[in-house]
Design brief:
The protein is an alpha+beta fold and 239 residues long. Helices cover 40% and strands 17% of the residues. Strands 3-4-5-2-1-8-9 form a 7-stranded mixed beta sheet. Strands 6-7 form a two-stranded antiparallel sheet. It is globular. The N and C termini lie far apart (46 Å).
Length: 239
Amino acid sequence: MKFVIPQKVKRLAKVFGDNGAKIYVVGGAVRDMMLGREVKDWDFTTNLTPDEMQKLFPKNSFCNNAYGTFSVVGARKEIFEITTFRTERGYSDKRHPDQIRWGKSIEEDLKRRDFTINAMAIDLETKEQKLIDIFGGGDDLGKKIVRAVGRPDERFGEDALRMLRAVRIATELDFEIENQTKESIRKNAELINEVAGERIREELFRIMTGEAAAEGVIRLRDTRLLACIVPQLMAGEGM
């Protein structure tokens, strides 16, 4: 399909291209473009390290070297987040990687992402804006399902908040959670208690304030997450 890339994104990409670097639109922005939805947050990934990006954007930028995220402030104060290709190892707190290594390719970077529909990228260097989809995210968009990348148990063991994100994304998009992914959430639901309360609150409020809030609560119940997060609500089941 043909992607409509706004000029603000093209200008950012040109800086990388002019300096021989690779940059891709990645994650939810790609998913939303393929669904014809408005892109509210543009996320990117690149082969440059934060220190190398700092040389390209010496002003109006800031970075978090711990996780390879570099932020560029646009002309209208819009913030573009750009992460370095990376691989991650060890998640002792069930939320953040214990060890990060810079990756060498976009394919390597996509393997660490949560769901297939979020693990697609657009190559901004190519005129045809090539879509990179190694996990079948496009097919899953067509099927309207949320499926974990690789083994669900591993993805949720790395970051337990992904279980709540699966419910939130499925609710927002009116998708179903793929069976193996859903069963893995049910099996690992208690891991959500190891995630910081403010992160749980953020996802929970997005579910509760959406147009399909009731359906979201049902999904939370069916995945056993509701019993772990707000067990008091289970007393009202069937009323």
